[in-house]
Amino acid sequence: MTNEALFRRALDCLPGGVSSPVRAFRSVGGTPYFVARGEGAYVVDVEGRRYLDYVQSYGASILGHADPAVLDAIAVAAAGGTSFGAPTLGEVLLAEEVRRRVPAVELLRFTSSGTEATMSAIRVARGFTGRSRVVKFAGCYHGHADLLLAGGGSGLSTLGLPDSAGVPTEAVAETVVAPYNAVPDLDERVACVIVEPVAANMGVVPPEPGFLGALRTACDETGALLVFDEVITGFRLGPGGAAERFGVRPDLLCFGKVLGGGLPIGAFGGRRDVMEVLAPIGPVYQAGTLSGNPLATAAGLAALRQLDRGAYDRLEDGAAELAAGLALAAEDAGVALQVPRVGPLLGVFFAAQPVTDYEGAKASAATGRYPVLFHALLREGVAFAPGAYEALFPSLAHGDAERAATLVAAGKALRAVAASG
Ligand SMILES: *Cc1c(COP(=O)(O)O)cnc(C)c1O
Fold it and tell me: Does the model's pTM come out above 0.90?
């Protein structure tokens, strides 16, 4: 079986051959590799080619692929049945673990994706405040719910869509898009401000010092709720995610990715008085047939149990080494490259100065250099994400040997970028 042949079959039965747009390689060109299996830091495609994988399910697989403890937990859970439509011990255990790590979470509800988490958190914020306006930031991605598909990052920026067809203007009429890293003017119409505390869907753009704290203050002054979308940063930047790292306590938080240990999950939570507007306690409806799924909660718990301070230190040290090596390789090759990093999370921008907002991120993508880097790395067996707006997600399975191999490949790839003009 070849990737080429399988892609042709896929194109016949799946729109664009994929189940999520960025996977189709449209923004980098070429044929996507079809993954047959994953092992630790690596994936193997249907042709038997092995790639050192920095996609890691867009961050969901923080331990690396097919972690034995996660697989065991899934097998044990699966043997007892895969979904019941009734409460289980597993969801209580995972919620307790989340609360231990993130003190701002007093009550938590599980969903099956990050999209559902942000969509539901917004509904709760609107229900609690009785207001309808939502402020988001350009380049931040919060999943694909209608009202948040404005000024989005990630797949949206990659596709060059400022918005999506099929979303009526009324659906985003109460969504205000503000530039990242600038505190917007709020008023008493604003139900909530939703932010990626480290933007990681327009490449990685760290919050400027004081930005998140100033958002907290602006929300407090107007009675708006502050929502941290920690679908990427949660359980990645450290045990308590971005809220802990930056010392800012949001009213609501959204989770996904790492929380499911590689299985489909999302969750949102926060202040008890706010979350109590949710049915069955309060009037805000939200539900899910597979929410709190026993396989996903078991996998998530098995993942979180391995994510102690030591694990985060290892992730962060590895990311720091990688960032420094990439910057050095770029300098050697004469390529203007920024390697922004916050803890274990890092990205690359083709820019001479640090990127602080979506305009900067778009300018980097517009150099057209990312596809050259991407394909040169792929030829060397290193898989970055197939889009200029994605972060790099090194896992705990990425060790010294993997970093060394990455930097050798990056040296060659960056010289190819330089040669491409
Ligand atoms: C991935 C992501 C989402 C959406 O999560 P899905 O599970 O893909 O629906 C929301 N917010 C952020 C910050 C994300 O990175």
Answer: yes
